[in-house]
Specification:
Distance between the termini: 55 Å
Order of helices and strands: HHH
Shape: rod-shaped
Structural class: mainly alpha
Helix content: over 70%
Largest sheet: none
Radius of gyration: 18 Å
Mean pLDDT: 85
Number of helices: 3
Length: about 90
């Protein structure tokens, strides 16, 4: 579980940051949630495996927060653009 948490944490962070501009930040958030779950399960082990699980969990939390921020910003931007176009009479 600890290795899965680390891999999913790295993947989720890359997707959340890189794919955020393309509106794919939510996929990074989903992978981040999985990284947090696997990290919590992997924390039950001791030693080096606990550190790996903790790192994956931290990366998952960062990716989840970043993905949510980017997704909300993207939705807000779309709404603002639609409001501007509606004010200009584009939808009439």
């Amino acid at each position: 579980m600890h290795t899965a948490a680390l891999v999913l944490g790295i993947v989720s962070l890359v997707i959340a940051i890189g794919g955020g501009a393309a509106g794919m930040g939510w996929i990074g958030s989903v992978c981040g949630i999985l990284a947090i779950i696997f990290g919590a399960l992997g924390m039950k082990a001791g030693g080096e495996q606990k550190k790996t699980a903790k790192t994956g969990m931290i990366l998952g939390i960062v990716a989840l927060c970043w993905g949510l921020i980017v997704t909300v910003a993207c939705i807000t931007c779309i709404g603002a653009g639609a409001s501007i176009l509606d004010g200009m009479g584009f939808f009439d």
